[in-house]
Amino acid sequence: MQIRLATIVAATFAVSMSLLAQGQPARVTAPRLYIFENGFIRGLDTKLFNLAREEVKEPDFVNTSYLIVHPQGTLQFDSGGIPDSQFKADGAPVTEGIQSALKPLLPQMAAAGYQPSQVTYFALSHYHSDHTANAGAFAASTWITQKAERDFMFSDKPAGIIQPAHYSALRNAKTKILDNEDFDVFGDGTVRLISTPGHTPGHQVLLVRLPKRGPVLLAGDLYHYPEERARGILPTFEFSVEQSRASRAKVEALLKQTGAELWIEHDMATHAALPKSPAYVE
Ligand SMILES: [Zn+2]
């Protein structure tokens, strides 16, 4: 019996070592969520959001993205506003127009123990350029997108707040196309993409059930400021105001039903209160 146990221990050790050699990330037994800080957008005109300056407590945005690690794989949600390639070797902060970033995305991911090549799924809340900067780094993942969003992104001359060069590599990525549908990413109800068109044709949000923290809803740009939600105000540049209203109603009902926390991606106060990678929420 002792010999058999020793054999099993040795075999397990050998498997662990070979996984390490392949650069496999550590296995988890329950979902966890890493939050990456991808910079700031300062000096925005709040009138773009149909709000006067004095009606908004904090006019500046933070840019965030998230890695969800699940026993069955990983999902990166959004990818920042300034490509990692814009950072110089000295690591100095980068400014592009009203956007700035203190640190690139991939080193933050590496500090948490993950490489883009180990990311199973990639999803964008939507195609605006403050979310797509490093999308190309995930072209080897399976891209989960709504059909209407993808159609717009790869139309002849997509116009608006969009940088096709950031995501062109996704064109030939392995792709799971959803048609205005919600999607249970790992099949056990813990990580669900929720179709919320309106801000863009195929905007989507992400509902994650964490074992300790409970359910959280990563809201993309369904809202930018908490004041939009409190007062039922929509930005001036929605793809479809009608769809946005319906999507907000859908999400508010979902929040009620699940008791989920709402995390507005650009909201400074929400971001300030949460642990940042390599710490994680579980
Ligand atoms: Zn945004």
SSE topology sketch:
Layout: H1 2-21, E1 32-41, E2 61-70, E3 73-77, E4 94-96, E5 99-101, H2 105-111, E6 121-123, E7 142-146, H3 147-153, H4 164-167, E8 175-178, E9 183-184, E10 191-195, E11 204-210, E12 214-218, H5 226-231, H6 241-258, E13 261-263, H7 268-272
Parallel strand pairs: 3-6, 6-7, 7-8, 12-13
Antiparallel strand pairs: 1-2, 1-5, 2-3, 4-5, 9-10, 10-11, 11-12
Bound molecules: zinc ion (ZN).
Zinc ion is lined by residues 128, 130-131, 221, 266.
Task: Provide an overview of this structure.
This protein has 282 residues and is an alpha/beta fold. It is built from seven helices and 13 strands. The strands form two sheets. An eight-stranded mixed sheet has the order 4-5-1-2-3-6-7-8. It has a five-stranded mixed sheet with strand order 9-10-11-12-13, covered by helices on one side. Zinc ion binds at residues 128, 130-131, 221, 266.
Radius of gyration: 20 Å
Q: Roughly what fraction of the amino acids lie in strands?
A: 15-25%
What binds here, in terms of ligands, is: zinc ion
How does the overall form come out from the CA principal axes? globular
Mean pLDDT: 93
Largest sheet: 8 strands, mixed
From the N-terminal CA to the C-terminal CA, the straight-line distance is: 38 Å
* Record field, number of beta strands: 13
Low-pLDDT stretches? 12-22
Q: Say what oligomer this is.
A: single chain
Structural class: alpha/beta
> What letter string, H or E per element, gives the SSE order?
HEEEEEHEEHHEEEEEHHEH
Helix content: 10-25%
- Order of strands side by side in the largest beta sheet? 4-5-1-2-3-6-7-8
Individual helix count: 7
